[in-house]
Write a structure and sequence with these properties.
Layout: E1 2-6, H1 10-20, E2 26-30, H2 33-39, E3 47-51, E4 53-54, E5 57-58, H3 63-69, E6 74-79, H4 84-93, E7 97-100, H5 105-139, H6 144-157, E8 163-166, H7 173-183, E9 191-195, H8 201-209, E10 210-211, E11 223-224, H9 226-229, E12 234-238, H10 248-257, E13 259-261, E14 268-270, E15 274-279, H11 283-288, H12 294-300, E16 303-306, H13 317-331, H14 341-349, H15 355-368, H16 402-416, H17 420-427, H18 431-443, H19 449-453
Amino acid sequence: MQVFIIDDDAHIAHAMEQAIAPFRFYITTLSSVADTIRVFSEKTPDLVFLDYRLGQESGLTLIEPLLKENPDCYIVMMTAHASFDVAIEAMKLGAKDFLRKPFSLEEIELLTRRVSETLKLKSRISELEEEYGEGQILLDSKNPKVQEILKLAKRAAQSNSVVLITGESGSGKTELAKAIHHWSNRSDHPFATVACPTLSAELLESELFGHVKGAFTGAIANHQGRIAKCEGGTLFLDEVGTLPLSLQPKLLRFLQDFTYERVGDTTTHKADVRIITATNANLADLVTQGQFREDLYYRVQVVELRLPALRERPEDIEALAQLLLFKLCKKHGRSPIRLTQAQIHLLKELPWRGNIRELHNTLERALIFSVDGEPLDFKNISPLSLSREPESTVQVGGPYTLEEIERAHIEATMARIDSVEEVAQVLGINPSTLWRKRKGYEQATPTSSASGNLMN
C-alpha cells in the first residue's frame, strides 16, 4: 500500500513515518502542494495524511487532484486549526476522516490499521466481483432450464461428488465450476483450473500430480502439482475429454481413493481435493471411439450438468450484454455505455455459435471501433458465427429447392461481405429478416447432403 504523509512540519512528518513503518507500507513524505503534484506521475497513493495548512497554501486544494488520480484514495485531513467548518469542507471535497492536532502516535497506528483492513476488504470484494462477475448473470438467469441446473448445482456443491459440466464452448462452464466451489464448504480453500488441451501428456501429468527433481530433462527441482496445491479445495479440469489415454488411469485412481504419485517418485501421496470436470464433447461417443475409458466416464459422470447454449436462453442476453459492456468500458477506460433496444433486439437474433465468449468479443470489437460518448456502432462488426460457413456446392439449375438455393445464396453473401447491413442491402431485404432466416438455418435439420455441407 502506498502512503503519503503531507505536512510542512518535518518533526511531525518524521514521527508519523516511524509510527507507520512497522506496517511495511511504501511511505512518501511531502511538505508542499507543489511537491505532491510533482510526484503524482510516479506514485498513486492509497492512504493520505494531509495537513490543512501547507505554508501559505491550503491542503484542501490537493483533495480533488488526489481523488482524480485514485478515486478510492483514503484521505485523512489533519489540522491544528480544527473547526467544524473545516471538517465539513474537507468531507464535501472527498476526505474520509479528520484528525485534530496534537494527536498521539497511537491514534495514527490505529487509524492506519483500520484503513489498511478496509482497503484490503475492498480489494478482496473487487477480486470476487472480477472472479464471479460474469457468473452472476448466470446465477440470476431468467431461463427455466438454467434455473433448474443452478438448483442442482447448489445441491451438488454440498457434497464431494465429482461434477461433469457439459455444453458448447464459451457457454459458461468455467463460471459454473467457480460458483459450485463458492457454494461448497471448500470455498475458503484454493480453486484452480487446468485446461487439458493446452499441455502435452508429459507436462499435463506434471501439472496435475507434480514431479521430483531429475524426473525428466529440465526437472531441476521438486514441483508440487495442482492437486497438492488445491488441498482442501477444488480442481477444475477443463475439456477433460482431451485427457490423454496414458493419464486417464491415474485420474481414475485419484477419483477412487484420492491417492497419486508424482512423476519420477514411488512415494504415494493422498489429497483431499474435489474434482469438477467440463467438456464440449460427447464423452459417450469418445468411449465408443476408444478415446476415453468407460470406467473413467462413469466416475466423472456422477453428477452431470448441461449448460444450454446462449441462443437457447435469449431472455438472458440483454442483462449479460449490459454487464459485459460495463466491464469492457471499465477495462478500456471508456465512459459507461448502455445498449439501445434496437441493438439488444439485434443481439437476440444472432445465433451465437461461440456463446458468451463470442458475445464478449463482439461487444469488445464494437467498443474499440466506436467513438467515446456515442452509442456502439455494429455497422462494420461481423459476428464470429457468420464467418465460419464454407462455400456452397448448390448450383442454380441443379436438383435443389428454391429454399436451398436461397439459403446457399444468403450464406455465400455473408461469407463474402463483413458488414451485416451491407449483406442485407445486397440481398434486398431488411437486416431483421436476414437474422430471422439465419436463425432458422441454425435450427433446421439438413434435408440433403448439399444442404448438410452448409452446416459443417
